[in-house]
What we know:
single chain, 2 helices, 2 domains, rod-shaped, about 0% strand
Amino acid sequence: MTQTTGRIFDDFAKLMNDAAGVATGVRREAEGVMRAQAERILRELDVVTREEFETVKELAAAAREENERLSARLAALEATIDPPDSLG
């Protein structure tokens, strides 16, 4: 009887181990399907990637700095020009 009980437990342990392996495979497959679906949805929504966003963000910061520099230069040049004679 002890031999039979031990074998039943061994078989049950093997069954649970196999079931865990199958569950892991199903989980991986589900994750793959969900990831593919999410990527498809994002492509359809025309969402930008993180890299594209960061590039545009850097370009905007550089343009803002250039604009501030040119504004300061223009203000300095305007300060050097004599005001026009007023009519009247």
